[in-house]
Amino acid sequence: MPSTAVNRRGFLKASLGGSAALVAAPTLVSWLAAADAKAATAPLAFVDDYRSNVMANLTPETNAVVRVLGGMAEVWKTGAAWNTGTALRPDVLRANMRYCARVTAARTEAQAREAFVHDRQHQSYAMIGALGPLADLYRTGAKAVTSITTAPDTTPPTTISDAVPADAPAGSALGAGSYTSELGQVARLVDTVRGPFASGNPGKYTFQYPRPWRMNENSEVVDTGRTDALGYPVYDSEVVVVTQLLRQRSTSPVDDGGFPSGHTNAFHLAALAFAYAVPERFQELVTRAFELSHTRIVSGMHSTVDVMGGRIMATALAAAALADPANAELKQAARTQALAYFTRRTGTTADTLYAHAHSDAGDRYADRRANRRSVEPRLTYVLTREGRDEPLTVPKGAEVLLETRLPYLSAAQRREVLRTTALPAGYVLLDGFEQWGRLDLFTAADGYGSFASDVTVTPDASAGGFGAADTWRNDIDGRGGLTKKGTGTLTLTGHNRYTGGTVVEDGVLVSASAHALGHGDVRVVGGTVRVDEPVQVHGLFAQESGTLEPTLRAGRRKAVLTVTRRVVLGADSVLSLRLDGERPPAVGSTVRVIDAPALRGRFDRVELHGGTDRLRAVPVYTADGLSVRIVRR
């Protein structure tokens, strides 16, 4: 074993052949292969070992973060010095460098300035912008401030750090805010998730993958022997750092590794802590974390593999901190405090806060589809899939990341959501130990991606928030079915193909797309099926009791409910019709409600709602369906 020493900066070094070199990780690849074996020395789950991420531990055997970042060892072999590493997958790393060169060459001045701000501003403060209509309220309540709001026109003469402005209100604090503020528990949670075991430095020293501006297309470090106007060495690289950040670069390459990106790690850690406390903005926070992480590439300071590495470690670290029993009271206090503060300041309730949090048309993240388009390519960047897909075993503890976003699901169900929305296997950098890189939290926030077996969901309206009403937006497939219990409302908006059928026993199930109810029988034995858009039932529709609540709109050619098999109506079934508020059917018109090869039975009661008591609906039954005629009373 090499002897070890700690240099004046506190970084562990090893004496190899009489020279001081950073501890390398030449055994990463072989260790990762061996880690799959079921041996008595099998490593602990990440969430049980995350506190090992300290500078004294720079090997996969001793550091949990180094283990989860082990996919990097498949593409990069660490050298004896910072500039002697070898590309094991030249195709991947060449694509990585070409991408960075293209992005930095094409960036605008506005993008350069934005990159400067997010390089110098406290990362936790930067994430507050994802709160949209709640952002200013948060800054006020948390007393969160920053001194970095704009970028200079040229290269500053010195390094710049964020600080509390001289004119800030008393008690103000950087980052997520002051612990003594109205949102002090939220600020404390963010800082705890970003705590002493969340540093990217051990990973940087282990892998020693240089920053992109020090490498050429082949991930080789070539010092040209020249210096720039600031006195920095010039390397053979097509990646150009933004002018405003030139003075902010480190002058010590050995202490300045690129992988994993520390800023990216910090952005995602802060985002997931905020998302736990303010789940009403979960997807927007995740989106902003990806967006701000991308500015690390735009700035020229990091590469795509650096950014993906930062996200992977942050996902695991956030889960570990939130799952740690030592933080159980804090995370609950932060969520309780945030909910109480925002409902009080906005005049909302737990049930209406979500709508208020998405009520600003000027919200940068108002368009969910645009958010999805922003996140999706950045999950994998330059990586391409290889080999066959393998089922994901969700890492231990990962379900805590959805604990406040999907509170009405059990821990096992949240794990299944993560599994069925995860990326497929085959992305080399993402397939490391426990495969944290495969988790797609943006998609997971929209519920299941597949029903591998029957799923029973029981949202409780009395719990408020997402328990009272939630929406699953994914396209759900699988052999299982859905049973809706509980008093809350669940809305399905996807093009669903699950084949196990749908059962409604209580509460409200909203069908909000043409194929929301999947491929299988639909049985209503209680509660309400609300049909906002014409829907096709690929099977039997049987309503023993409960309520069918379709919305009637003028101009529709299709029936509200089209059934491929027969319709069976029980003696206790109710049809509750609602007239569209903007385009109601004209008085005297006939509207098709149900189309089916055969219809048996009749509704016990037909009701009409829509803001008037002067109209009524007259049902017209036929052998193959039901229409209603809108008439005056």
Distinctive features:
single chain, 633 residues, alpha/beta, 2 domains, seven-stranded parallel β-sheet, 17% strand, elongated, disordered N terminus, Autotrns_rpt, Pectin_lyase_fold/virulence, Phosphatase PAP2 family protein, signal
Structural features, described:
By secondary structure, this protein is α/β, with parallel strands linked by helices. The chain has two domains: 1-384, no CATH class; 448-632, no CATH class. Helices cover 28% and strands 17% of the residues. The strands form six sheets. The protein has a seven-stranded parallel sheet with strand order 8-10-12-14-17-20-23, with no helix packed on it. It has a seven-stranded parallel sheet with strand order 9-11-13-15-18-21-24, with no helix packed on it. It has a five-stranded mixed sheet with strand order 16-19-22-26-25, with no helix packed on it. Strand 6 (223-227) and strand 7 (233-235) form a beta hairpin. Helix 8 (184-193) packs antiparallel against helix 10 (262-277). Residues 1-27 and 34-40 have low confidence and may be disordered. InterPro entries: Autotrns_rpt, PAP2/HPO, PAP2/HPO_sf, Pectin_lyase_fold/virulence, TAT_signal. Residues 1-35 form the signal peptide. Keywords: Signal.
